[in-house]
Design brief:
Distance between the termini: 50 Å
Strand content: under 5%
Number of strands: 0
Largest sheet: none
Helix content: over 70%
Radius of gyration: 28 Å
Shape: elongated
Structural class: mainly alpha
């Protein structure tokens, strides 16, 4: 049997195009991509694509910024990395409060520049959306996975920073206090990661259940189709016999 021609020769390019589309086109384009993958007998990839969530408006806005203003996004990622490093140095007594303030200011200005650029996106944005966008940009820049998704323009959810915010008021403190602060931040981050993991696990379970139900429905329909085909074949045989009997009487 000749293998089917690949309907999706470059899935990564297709995904970039999917997340770059107007938000109202996402669901239709996602389903079309999943259908083409299934026709190419790439069922596993098709299921994964079909399960992709439609981005929120704030996440979509961040994705468009990654495409339209990549230099501004790169500046945010660099500023966030520098701020994190400065915070750690400050907790170790190797950076001053002024250093932390300067790094935090750079990060805030990078977020502000991106939020300002988002005002020019198609459809505009409300003050509430811009606020959520700013939080998403800041949180994504602080997380390893979020940084990659932001840079590639493939965010789907709004994000919220966990752990330390900008440590602008860091002053010399006893080592025990610094350890307590680090431990508190680690616990807060762990709480956030656990919540995110629970959400993703629930979504995965729901997608798996939907897949199982779809398979069961398909099996029922196949059985019903087979039964109807058998009934149709029997009816055709009876018709043929009746016609033959009629002809023999003439």
């Amino acid at each position: 049997m000749t293998p089917p021609l690949a309907a999706v020769p470059d899935l990564e390019r297709e995904l970039d195009e999917l997340y770059g589309r107007p938000l109202e086109e996402f669901t239709r384009a996602r389903n079309d991509l999943a259908a083409r993958l299934r026709r190419a007998h790439q069922s596993e990839a098709a299921d994964a694509i079909r399960a992709l969530k439609k981005p929120t408006l704030a996440a979509w806005s961040a994705n468009q910024l990654a495409r339209g203003d990549p230099k501004l996004v790169r500046e945010l990622l660099d500023a966030a990395a520098a701020l994190h490093q400065t915070q750690q140095s400050s907790l170790a007594g190797k950076a001053s409060a002024g250093d932390v303030t300067a790094a935090a200011t750079r990060e805030r200005e990078a977020v502000r520049a991106l939020v300002s650029a988002a005002r020019g996106l198609p459809g505009g944005a409300t003050a509430a959306t811009l606020e959520r966008l700013g939080q998403t940009l800041q949180a994504a820049a602080l997380d390893e996975v979020g940084r990659e998704l932001l840079e590639r323009g493939r965010l789907t959810d709004e994000l919220h920073a966990v752990g330390f915010g900008p440590l602008e008021a860091v002053k010399a403190a006893p080592e025990v206090r610094r350890r307590d602060e680090v431990a508190k931040a680690a616990k807060q981050r762990l709480t956030g990661l656990r919540a995110a993991a629970r959400t993703l696990d629930a979504e995965a379970r729901a997608a798996e259940q939907a897949a199982r139900e779809t398979e069961r429905t398909a099996e029922i329909l196949r059985d019903e189709a087979a039964q109807r085909r058998a009934d149709a074949d029997r009816a055709a045989e009876e018709l043929a016999e009746a016609e033959k009997a009629l002809r023999s009487r003439r």
